[in-house]
Structure prediction request, 82 residues.
Amino acid sequence: MEIIRWVLIGIIALTSVFTVFFVLLNKGKGGGLSDMFGGGMTSSLNSSGVASRNLVRLTVGTIVLWVVAIIAYALLLRFTAA
Prediction:
């Protein structure tokens, strides 16, 4: 069980970093912090609709994997605690 615990912690850490990275890569919709900190400068990077959709899918997939890992870790702690 100790190996599973460490694997889940690793997955949680990696998906946390990737989630922050992917969220920052996504194009801002305007009117928020993305405009305040120069969000308009990256508009040329996200000009492709397909690339933007794929980035959103990758972001959502990473977040779903993070949530599943958190739930699995909580269940592991709950049912293996003495």
